[in-house]
Amino acid sequence: MKTNKICPECGSKEVEVGEFKGYGSLFKRKAIIKSSEVDAYFCVNCGYVLTLKVRKPEKFL
Ligand SMILES: [Zn+2]
């Protein structure tokens, strides 16, 4: 998935979104049942990770 973000490290516009699933998911402490995938915006050119974003933050309320 392409984004309109620009890498602050190398200036590349080749920023894509990946995701962490399974072991990479963010779990609420002491509440293992609650988890969400985490989207990672990263630069394809240099590998810099711009942003990590929890996809369903409302799960942790
Ligand atoms: Zn870059």
Describe what you observe in this structure.
By secondary structure, the protein is mostly beta strands. Helices cover 0% and strands 44% of the residues. It is built from no helices and 5 strands. The protein has a 3-stranded antiparallel β-sheet with strand order 1-4-5, with no helix packed on it. It has a two-stranded antiparallel sheet with strand order 2-3. The chain binds zinc ion (ZN).
Strand content: 35-45%
Listing every helix as H and every strand as E from the N terminus to the C terminus, the arrangement reads EEEEE
* Low-pLDDT residue intervals, each spanning 5 or more residues: none
The number of helical elements comes to: 0
End-to-end gap: 28 Å
Helix and strand composition category: mainly beta
Number of beta strands: 5
Q: Which cofactor or ligand species appear?
A: zinc ion
**Strand line-up in the sheet with most strands:** 1-4-5
Largest sheet: 3 strands, antiparallel
